[in-house]
Structure formats: structure tokens, C-alpha cells
């Protein structure tokens, strides 16, 4: 077997273990693909490889702006990034367009060196680029396959170029990989006739021939339907669980795909804004309640606003005749009347929203955080006070109760 990448003091991992659920049973979501991947496939003909942990420290990358004859300075695409990607983990690099996802992965894969500053370490030691390129693979976003070859023929071409084994061993290896990746049924189909998901799995199978311990994927789910996306990400997770280091960029994954990643590395404008486990990247108590909470907040503010607005709108015209008589007889000024009426209503506009918020906040199982609770009360109280002033304005605009009812309803 080709065992060049195995160091004398390293421990070889078989890299073909099945995905196991919490209960100890293999996952069985997609019968056709994932069951075949998660069977106890031993890949007896795959070269043995040592596990690889990839680490980068203070990684920066700059490019020169403008054409070569008129430079306009430098632009930093990556700024002092550090992180560690371990074996047996599916790592997703995420971020908006232009955040530096592809640039970071190209540097980690060794495709870009000029303009880079910082260190890239392999198992704690400085990376030898030539050796690392032999023990890793990079699968592009677009699957470039020879259109006139069948899936099996393409696999045999890859095996002949990468392995120094007998023909029988290569055939056995190709059969094992095609079976594990759910491609055996289309082994004699030309690559030009394969579906998007099958092309993506075939591209992975071609690189899996020499069992690379580090695999890079540039947006592997791009252009695929939801079922194919799930199959591809399930495959990547299977490969990671087998002992490999799987690193991929991904753009706008669904919630189901998002939960399948072990670690996330999120970029924004060339800087890392989050790195760590997916389980810690949660909005509030439960991310599924975000839209429900938005609706709850909207209707709560609407209820409080009309609760403070309508009594003022409907009662002010009833007092108008008395107010005009007393004001014209110089009992009090307009400012004194407004101030007295506002101060008299303030206790109700404060106490009532607090009572409402204290009930519905806990009734709807909001996060038990004092800051959130106090912020909700403050927002509700301010809404009630503004609504009261608005009610006075609307009530003073017309002396007819019937007109006000038409305006407000």
C-alpha cells in the first residue's frame, strides 16, 4: 500500500467508521445513499493514513489594488485569523459574499502563498507545502468531469494515476467506494448524464481513491436541490467521522444542514466573528421561536398603544365644553390643564403596561434574563406614554365624538 504520508510515530486511522447516533445505532435517514455510507464498510484496499489537525495562527492576506502599471496601495482580505481544525470534525466556513471564505480556504489548501502572513501548522509542526498537497485534496464548486467517461471508467483513471497497486486491488477499491457513496447503480452511466448530486458524489469519490486525510470543499451544495444537499452533507459528515478533516465553505444552509456541522468558522470583512461549536450559536432560548417572538412583540406594542390611545381620544371631547368655559374664565391656563391631565394619567400608563408585561413575558416562555425583561417593560411603557400624547392630539383636532370614532376605527 501507498503509506508515504504515515509518519513512524503516528497512529493510523482506518477512516471508514459508520456514523453512530446517541442510542448507538447507525443513522438511517436516506435509505439509498446514507445507509450505504454508514454500513460497516472497511475499505480494506484504501491506503492507511494518519490523522491530520490543521492550525493557523495570525493569518493575514493582502493584495495590491489597481493594474500593474498603476498601483493604488494594498487591500487586506484576511486580518489576523487564528483557528484549529481537527480530525473527525466537519467544519463549515461561513460568511456573506466578499467576507474572505474562499480566500481562507485557498490559503489553507496551499493554493495561495504570495501576500500571506502568519503560520499554518500541521499536527503542531510548520507545514511543508509539497507534502501537504500530496495528502490533501480540493474539490471545486463546479464539478469538472470528463463527459464521455462512465462513472466507473473515471474512477479507474483516478486509481491508475494515484495508486501503485495491482489491477485487481484497484477494481476492488473502486467497487468499495462506488458502493459506499451510492454510485454503484450508475457506474456505467456517462458523467454527462448524471444528476447534480451524483456528479458531486463522483467528484468526491475520485479524490477518495488515495484516502486523503484532509479534504477541502468549495460550496459543495451550490446548485443542488434540498435532497441532494442533504445527501452530500451527510456524506461529508460520514467522511469526517471516519477520521478525516473535512473543511468546506457553505452559503445559506438550511436549518437541517446547519445542525450537521461540528464546528463553524464565520467571517465578516476578513475577520473572524465566531468560531466554535454549532450548539453554542443559538438565538435566544430557541431559534425556531424567532418569528413567533417578532409577532408577539408587534401585537403587544399594538395592544398597549391602542389601550392608551383610545381612552384619551374618546374622553377628551367630552371634557372640551367644560374646559373651554373654565379656561375662558381664567380658572387655569392651557399648560396647567395639559400638565395636570398628563400627570393624572401617568400612573395608569406605567402600572398597566408593567402588569401586562409581567404576565405575558413569562407566559410565552421568554428567556429568563433580567435585562431582556426590563427592556421589554421600558419599551412598553414608552409606547403607552407616546400613545397617550397622540390621543390628546387627535382628541383636540376635532370636537365631534362621531368624527373621532371614524378616524380611530
UniProtKB/TrEMBL annotation:
What stretches pass through the bilayer?
296-318, 338-361, 373-397
Task: Output the Gene3D superfamilies linked to this UniProt entry.
Answer: P-loop containing nucleotide triphosphate hydrolases (3.40.50.300)
What do the Gene Ontology cellular component annotations say?
Answer: endomembrane system; plasma membrane
Which UniProt keywords are given for this protein, alphabetically ordered? ATP-binding, Cell membrane, Membrane, Nucleotide-binding, Translocase, Transmembrane, Transmembrane helix, Transport
Q: Which residues form the ABC transporter domain?
A: 54-294
* Superkingdom in the source lineage: Eukaryota
What InterPro entries does the record point to?
Answer: AAA+_ATPase, ABC2_TM, ABC_transporter-like_ATP-bd, ABC_transporter-like_CS, ABCG_transporters, P-loop_NTPase
Q: CDD domains, alphabetically?
A: ABCG_EPDR
Family membership, please give it.
Belongs to the ABC transporter superfamily. ABCG family. Eye pigment precursor importer (TC 3.A.1.204) subfamily.
Name a biological process GO annotation.
cholesterol homeostasis
Q: What is this protein called?
A: ATP-binding cassette sub-family G member 4
* Gene Ontology MF term list: ABC-type sterol transporter activity; ATP binding; ATP hydrolysis activity
Origin organism of this chain?
Takifugu flavidus (sansaifugu)
- Recorded topology in the membrane: Multi-pass membrane protein
Q: What Pfam families does the annotation carry?
A: ABC2_membrane, ABC_tran
Task: Please state where this protein is localized.
Answer: Cell membrane; Endomembrane system
Amino acid at each position: 500500500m501507498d503509506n508515504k504520508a504515515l509518519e513512524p510515530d503516528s497512529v493510523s486511522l482506518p477512516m471508514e467508521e459508520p456514523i453512530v447516533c446517541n442510542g448507538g445505532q447507525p443513522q438511517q435517514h436516506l435509505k439509498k445513499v446514507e445507509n450505504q455510507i454508514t454500513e460497516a464498510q472497511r475499505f480494506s484496499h484504501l491506503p492507511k493514513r494518519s490523522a491530520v489537525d490543521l492550525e493557523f495562527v495570525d493569518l493575514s492576506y493582502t493584495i495590491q489594488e489597481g493594474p500593474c502599471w498603476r498601483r493604488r496601495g494594498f487591500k487586506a482580505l484576511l486580518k489576523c485569523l487564528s483557528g484549529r481544525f481537527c480530525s473527525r470534525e466537519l467544519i463549515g466556513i461561513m460568511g456573506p459574499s466578499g467576507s474572505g471564505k474562499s480566500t481562507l480556504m485557498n490559503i489553507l489548501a496551499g493554493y495561495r502563498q504570495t501576500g500571506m502572513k502568519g503560520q499554518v501548522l500541521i499536527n503542531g509542526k510548520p507545514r511543508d507545502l509539497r507534502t501537504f498537497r500530496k495528502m490533501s485534496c480540493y474539490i471545486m464548486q463546479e464539478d469538472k468531469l470528463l463527459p464521455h467517461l462512465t462513472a466507473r471508467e473515471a474512477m479507474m483513471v483516478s486509481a491508475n494515476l494515484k495508486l501503485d497497486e495491482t489491477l485487481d486491488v484497484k477494481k476492488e477499491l473502486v467497487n468499495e467506494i462506488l458502493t459506499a457513496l451510492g454510485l454503484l447503480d450508475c457506474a456505467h452511466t456517462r458523467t454527462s448524464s448524471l444528476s447534480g448530486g451524483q456528479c458531486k458524489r463522483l467528484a468526491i469519490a475520485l479524490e477518495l481513491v488515495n484516502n486523503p486525510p484532509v479534504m477541502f470543499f468549495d460550496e459543495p451544495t451550490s446548485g443542488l436541490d434540498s435532497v441532494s444537499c442533504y445527501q452530500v452533507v451527510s456524506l461529508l459528515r460520514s467522511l469526517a467521522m471516519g477520521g478525516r478533516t473535512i473543511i468546506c465553505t457553505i452559503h445559506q444552509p438550511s436549518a437541517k444542514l446547519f445542525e450537521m456541522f461540528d464546528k463553524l468558522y464565520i467571517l465578516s470583512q476578513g475577520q473572524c466573528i465566531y468560531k466554535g461549536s454549532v450548539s453554542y450559536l443559538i438565538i435566544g432560548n430557541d431559534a425556531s421561536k424567532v418569528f413567533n417572538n417578532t409577532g408577539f412583540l408587534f401585537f403587544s406594542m399594538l395592544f398597549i398603544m391602542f389601550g392608551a390611545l383610545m381612552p384619551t381620544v374618546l374622553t377628551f371631547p367630552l371634557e372640551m365644553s367644560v374646559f373651554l368655559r373654565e379656561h375662558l374664565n381664567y380658572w387655569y391656563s392651557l399648560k396647567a390643564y395639559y400638565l395636570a391631565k398628563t400627570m393624572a394619567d401617568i400612573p395608569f400608563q406605567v402600572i398597566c403596561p408593567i402588569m401586562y408585561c409581567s404576565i405575558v413575558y413569562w407566559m410565552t416562555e421568554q428567556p429568563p434574563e433580567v435585562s431582556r425583561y426590563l427592556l421589554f417593560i421600558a419599551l412598553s411603557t414608552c409606547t403607552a406614554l407616546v400613545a397617550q400624547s397622540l390621543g390628546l392630539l387627535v382628541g383636540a383636532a376635532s370636537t365631534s365624538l362621531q368624527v373621532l370614532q371614524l378616524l380611530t376605527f
